[in-house]
Design a protein that fits this description.
heterodimer, A: alpha/beta, Rossmann fold, 6-stranded mixed sheet, about 15% strand, B: alpha+beta, Jelly Rolls
Chain lengths: ~400, ~450
Amino acid sequence: MQYAIETFSLTKIFSDWWGRDKVVAVDDLNLKIRTNEVFGLLGPNGSGKTTTLKLLLGLLHPTKGRSLLLEGSAADPQISTRIGFLPEESYLYKYLTARETLEFYGRLFKLPAKVRKLRTEALLDMVGLKAVANRHVGTFSKGMARRIGLAQALINDPDLLILDEPTTGLDPIGTRQIKDLIIELAKRGKTILLCNHLLADVEDVCDRIAILYGGKIQAEGNVSDLLRRTDKTEITTGLLSPDAVKKIERIFAEERAEYSISAPMTKLETFFIDIIAAAQQQELPTSGAESKRHISEFLSAKPQELADRQAILDQLVSSGVQQDEPADTVTRQPQPRPSPSADEDFLKGLVQTDASAGSQTAVPKPVEPTPVLPPQPDRNVIDELLGKPASDGDVKENGDTHNA
Amino acid sequence: MRSIWAIAVNTIKQAVRLKIAAVFIVLLLVLLPVMGLKMTGDGTLKGRMQSFISYSLSLMSLLLALLTILAACFTLTNDVKDKQVYTVLTKPVRRYQFVLGKLLGVIVLDAFLLTLFSVVIYSIAVLMPQFIKADNEQLERARNEFFTARASIVPPQPDISAEIDEKYEKLKESGEVPKGVDENPVARRNYRNELSRRIGLRRRAAVVGEELVWEFENVKLSDPKQPLFVKFKYEVAVNPADLAIYSGWVIGDLRQIRMGEMPVTPIYSVERKDLIRTAVEFQVPGDCVADDGYVALAFQNVPLNNTVVIFPLEDGLEVLFQADSFTANFVRAVLLVFIRLVFLAALAVFAGSFLSFPVAVLLCLAVFTMANMSGFINESFEFLGENINKLYYHSLKHIMNLLPEFDDYNPGQFLLSARLISWTLVAKAGALMVFLKSLPLVAFSIVIFSLREIAKVIV
């Protein structure tokens, strides 16, 4: 139950027409991705990220080795029912409308018609494409196609979400939304495997990363561990009086520390989002996707499963087994859901509200123009790991039992 | 099943929205009525109907065949090329469900379009006599020889092998067999074939004053009031001056005469003058058939002719009688077209499961063309030299046998001559083309598609 994805010496060698080996795309890859972890697979172009995903999903056959997804094969419908996949480009049927696209994929999951319809509407709303739901996907911009691609990956409320460069083609707001979404989904107990070469995106959301080059893992570990610098200290405060600055400079001088004091720059991302949010508040029209900042409620962990997982975690913590792996498991508190039927009830409510406030949904919703803070949940986790070294032990024990 | 259906519906949407189907629909909807107006055939109502039905059915069959090939090849190859399979096959969809869904989609689309166009063709055909000024005689002829479904009985081929043996031995004894023929098995076979041809011909030929008699069994009329049709064609040794043959025909249960009893069923005598080398038919009342379905036919070459009259092997003589209605026959003709389309859909899905779009289409078109003239190809191989013949019999013939029998089950040919398409015939066509030839193709395509590395980039 612990590993959502596990590969054993996974190798893929592409050969030419004569059967001669040409390219080693993935080389002896041993990945272990835990349940409810946000894992980033990084690497430059051609490093084997996408090939790895294709091998995991059975779209390519491994030359050697094998892989397990949710402890089974991706070819098994029982397993693939629990997987959501967004390919590197949103390969969609151009002649279907956005709504039909989601309906089609919903049918492939054999969702009951009622649930399918509710989820379709909820997802269209979530990715901000409700206003263009009846337009053919072929007419969509790349970012809009990306959004509908993401929606199709979520239609089955997957336990494991595999996203291949989810933010390509998206504007900074869309990128931001996807990052928020990933964090939110992780909170709800999903496991997420993320492929990306936009490092800033990965840094914000991933618990663990692996850096691929030449089909091999060059570095793997906890994001905070990998990036923590032991030779520097960073102090961030509010605006200080010149007096206070002088005092601090004196302390630094006593410590003989190298330092620099300046007003920090806003991240361009934050700045951009503020500007657009302001524009949206003025209700300027747009032909593109709207920005929404909520997540569809049906995307939830099943309460029973969560309870089970919690129970296992508790057991592992109390068992006090020896540990030899780095502390890299994330323990989140998923939002519990009252009952399985609540999913449907809630969706019903959601759709009804939408229907009554139809005009409202057509207008871009203003985004709160607050400066965007780094994603809270992730920080919490990192803070927790950084600030409470004592808790490392607990988590370590937990991590160890996979091998036991 | 639900995934298969979802994929099938998606395939239909693809064909319709990408306007693959639209082209064919518009083309047919324009051409069919135009054909109904413009086709005149030989000027008679019957001729007009014949040419309309045969051309319209062929055109519909051809266009739908092309649509099937294009749509089925496109839907599979394009999903792989544009990588939509990545999102579909990572859902709980087995590969076989994907292939079957595509196939089902094309077949359902075919069934829908076929129904639509068949209704159009049928309506035009049935309404046409009302819009054309035709006298009663023409109407009667059209009704008897076109708007009907007639079963056909040809005289049974007599077993003449004993006669050949006898003749051969006789010739051998009298030393008339050419030198070397008896020793060489190939030459002997050819010689005997020639003998067989001659004896067969002699049986179908009437010298001046001679009478030929054919006996038919199992002539089961649906209604004894319906007439019996005798269809024949003359071949002659010497062309008569007016290119016509005078003849006397006697039709009925001739057993009654032999036994010297009073005839129970009537025996009809017909005197005619007909053009040579032209298919002609005349009718006699159906009550001449005996209760047990026996009827005999005698032809007398009257001395006036002064030439040998021969009935050609293929279309020399047959007896026709109404066995079913035009409507029922038309429905079965459409079913025959549908069986073709099912085969083509299976073929195209098979080709699309491992080839790129243009190559797959090319393969399908090649098979389609060859299947359409498989009869001609087979015949022409029969005339090849001895050595090539061997090669043909051991390899090519088997390959040719893999082709579907479009030739033998050409619905246009049946409707043109108002010939009955029996359910047995439809079942046989279905068994041959769907079960024997399509199912293995589908099985192959599923195996190929399942084993295939979908995401592999082929350069």
